[in-house]
């Protein structure tokens, strides 16, 4: 288990940095939108472009990891995220969109790469916990973005904030270099990168009933997660009259809820509740808390608002580790990276479609409340599917 914890530390740091890169611009969306001269509602399009790149990269991740090694692929991801942030400094919609796509291409292969490393080094009975701890890197990166980026924007401007996060990504890639030889020892430099094989991960995910259910639920859960992280700052500033720094801190609170949630739900799943029942419980919480977020009003006590957002983060951001560990468990032997890439491409499709739909619905009704309220319906359908599957398994036992 000692080796697993070492791998965990490396993958956690890399995951946090690419997540921070992804959420850097959303964390200061009102200021960037004003500088560029567009509506902040278009931040959903930005996130969709990011995850369009992530879909492509996640499908290529399995062959890339096999050929170049998981650490080298992760380092390349960090470099691409840094390049995307720097390109976005140009301040034109075209440059920001291109930068977003590069960030997505950098973000996409990191999770399959880390799943490859952790699946090899983690005992099966600890998988949910270890994968959940590693996946705390995503909300940790979001918390860092929410806590640091708005303040940086006030100090050095939004372009200076982009440069600072890009530099942090480069530093993380450099720190990982001494570990590359040992952790990438299983790479096969002769492994071909064949474009025709990019459909194999999706085929694997859709042909396996358990993986198909997990991928479908992750599609919906990712809509809830990214709608929360993408629009929370704008919702709080526009609807609840929060200042940008206060709204950024509230985003950090939701992300810290996700950090604690990922570890807690992984522990709960490993301790006997099981992955599917844990995911069903999380779906139920998302239904309640998305509705509660839609009902927030100006003048509500800050502690009450933060408590709701903390719990919303714990559920809407806390599901990933349990999900990824279950994908690794159900994947055919030696194909955890391939299965993760296939299911993640469907997860990322939810992110591509979800935030723009959230923004369009909010624009149609003239309030971000409509978007948060609408999240309850698809998560309720996931809850029903998970409960029905659980009953089918028990009936066939």
From TrEMBL:
Name the InterPro entries on file: MFS, MFS-Transporter, MFS_dom, MFS_trans_sf
Q: What's in the keyword line of the UniProt record?
A: Membrane, Transmembrane, Transmembrane helix
Coiled-coil region list:
none
Please list every transmembrane segment annotated in the UniProt record, as residue ranges.
Answer: 43-66, 78-107, 156-176, 213-236, 242-267, 279-297, 303-324, 336-358, 370-387
Superkingdom is Bacteria
Q: Which SUPFAM superfamilies match?
A: MFS general substrate transporter (SSF103473)
Question: Which parts of the sequence belong to the Major facilitator superfamily (MFS) profile domain?
Answer: 7-394
User: Could you give a GO molecular-function term held by this entry?
Assistant: transmembrane transporter activity
Query: Which Pfam families does the UniProt entry name for this protein?
Result: MFS_1
PANTHER family xrefs? BLL3282 PROTEIN
Q: What is this protein called?
A: MFS transporter
Could you tell me which species this protein originates from? Ramlibacter lithotrophicus
